[in-house]
């Protein structure tokens, strides 16, 4: 039962002290789940990130769900997910109650202007780590470059990119498996 509580507390802390959404929390999750608690190996962590990015829903909750289930099954899933989402619910309630009265206050506006660059850094840092851990090399660099170009310049929906990537990956896996089978015979 101790680990279930640790999952809740770990993800509660991550949810409470992360600004900028799911990607900004990656460093904290990696530090707590991989480095500190050793619940997940580094390679599996980056595989998990790849999986939860493709799933519908909130990135933070999906990460908590995966980790909680891996560590303690259904009880761990519930504990980690509640830990990840309760801080957001509480913060949103506080903002709804108090912020509307102070949103035009110059001090509040300056605070948010100061927070924005920090949020960019919190998102950029894990983005660089994701790129490094994705094992992109000169042969595979064309894929992320093509995806960026299609999304940014040609306004192709990321949904189509994901679908094309899944189809291409499955086709490549079948092709590789057939080649391997032919070389064995």
Itemize the secondary structure elements and their pairings:
Elements: H1 2-16, H2 26-36, H3 42-54, H4 59-102, H5 106-133, H6 142-152, H7 158-184
Helix pairs in contact: 1-4, 3-4
Describe this structure in words.
- This protein is 81% helix and 0% strand.
- By secondary structure, the protein is mostly helical.
- The longest helix is centred in the middle third of the chain and has 44 residues, at 59-102.
- The mean pLDDT is 89.
Overall form: globular
Number of helices: 7
Rg to the nearest angstrom? 20 Å
Beta-strand share of residues: under 5%
Alpha carbon gap, first and last residue = 52 Å
Describe the oligomeric state of these chains in a short phrase: single chain
Tally of individual domains: 2
How many beta-strand runs? 0
Low-confidence stretches: none
Main beta-sheet annotation: none
Features:
mainly alpha, single chain, globular
How would you summarize what this structure contains?
With about 180 residues, this protein is mainly alpha-helical.
């Amino acid at each position: 039962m101790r680990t279930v509580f640790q999952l809740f507390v770990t993800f509660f802390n991550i949810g409470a002290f992360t600004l900028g959404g799911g990607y900004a929390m990656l460093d904290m999750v990696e530090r707590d789940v991989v480095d500190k608690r050793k619940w997940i190996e580094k390679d599996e962590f980056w595989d998990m990130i790849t999986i939860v990015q493709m799933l519908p829903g909130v990135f933070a909750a999906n990460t908590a769900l995966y980790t909680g289930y891996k560590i303690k099954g259904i009880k761990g899933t519930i504990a980690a997910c509640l830990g990840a989402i309760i801080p957001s619910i509480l913060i949103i309630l506080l903002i709804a109650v108090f912020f509307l009265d102070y949103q035009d206050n110059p001090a509040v506006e300056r605070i948010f202007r100061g927070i924005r660059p920090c949020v960019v850094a919190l998102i950029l840092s894990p983005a660089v780590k994701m790129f490094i851990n994705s094992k992109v090399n000169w042969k595979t660099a064309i894929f992320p470059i093509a995806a960026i170009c299609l999304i940014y310049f040609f306004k192709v929906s990321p949904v189509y990119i994901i679908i094309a990537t899944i189809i291409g990956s499955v086709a490549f896996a079948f092709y590789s498996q057939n080649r391997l089978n032919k070389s064995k015979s």
